[in-house]
Amino acid sequence: MLNCIAVDDENLALDLLEDNIQKVPFLNLVKRCKNAFDAIETLQNNHIDLMFLDIQMPGITGVQFLQSLKTKPMVIFVTAYKQYALEGFELDVVDYLLKPIDFERFLKAVNKASELHSLKQKAVSEEHTTPKPDQVSSIFVNADYSLVKIKIEDITYIEGLKDYIKIYVESSSKPIVTRMTMKAIEEKLPSSSYFRVHKSFIVSLEKIESIRNLKIKIGNAQIPISESYSESFFKTLGQ
After folding, report:
1. Which end of the chain is more exposed for a tag (fewer CB within 10 A), N or C?
2. Where is each HTH LytTR-type domain found (predicted)?
3. What is the helix, strand, coil percentage profile of the chain, to 5?
4. Res. 147: pLDDT tops 90
5. What is the pLDDT confidence band of residue 133, given thresholds at 50, 70 and 90?
6. What b/e string do you get for 59-83 counting C-beta neighbours within 10 Å, with b at 16 or more?
């Protein structure tokens, strides 16, 4: 269902538009508007998908009105003047109907609007339902006078040492040392998989083997959990 409004200063034109709208099952006429100012109020107070808009109106033209809107519904221009067609399409309107409107031509225009609306809804739906990675799969850091690529899933924990950090990985017995702050590396890691448990330590939740006396065991390392991070950390673990 498309919520729509009809904007025209002539009652006869509004009557004809309303009659056509009522013949189409997927159109719901929210309001008839006699001018742009009435239309603005309706747009502000209602969710409007489609606007039938006359161009030649007193005070402010349909073109000026459309140009003034920051958020625009789909628009079908309705006018008696052919010369505005090009200007209408430059404003990205759905269609351009000439008065008097033939119902078959009207139906073609609103079907086009319906298809466009469906495509937009599908795009929004896919954007919200398609899983997105929390972060990229790897990062690059400066180490040993070169850029070193590190797979994020390979990181077991990170230790901060003033202006440097040590990145411990499963694939190497030696940590990768790079000049970086803990905050900077924390922002690069997926929050769903890595957690800061101490001002000097970030751990991989998947690599934790056990926790005892506020110490995390990962391999041979015993990583402390500070009081300031403990509550949020155990909440993350569901404890």
Report:
1. C
2. 139-239
3. 35, 30, 30
4. no
5. very low
6. ebbbbebbeeeeeebbbbbbbeeee
Set out the domains of the chain in order of their start, with CATH numbers.
Answer: 2-129 (3.40.50.2300), 138-236 (2.40.50.1020)
Query: How far, in Å, are 24, 71, 98, 159, 191 from residue 127 at the CA level?
Result: 30, 20, 37, 36, 21
Both tokens of residue 206?
A: 């998947």
What does the pLDDT read at residue 223? Answer: 96
Q: What average pLDDT score do residues 198-213 get? A: 94
User: Residue range 104-122: average pLDDT?
Assistant: 91
Q: What is the pLDDT of residues 39-65, one digit of tens each?
A: 999 999 999 999 999 988 888 888 889
Q: Indicate the DSSP class of residue 189.
A: S
34 contacts 53 by C-beta, under 8 angstroms: no
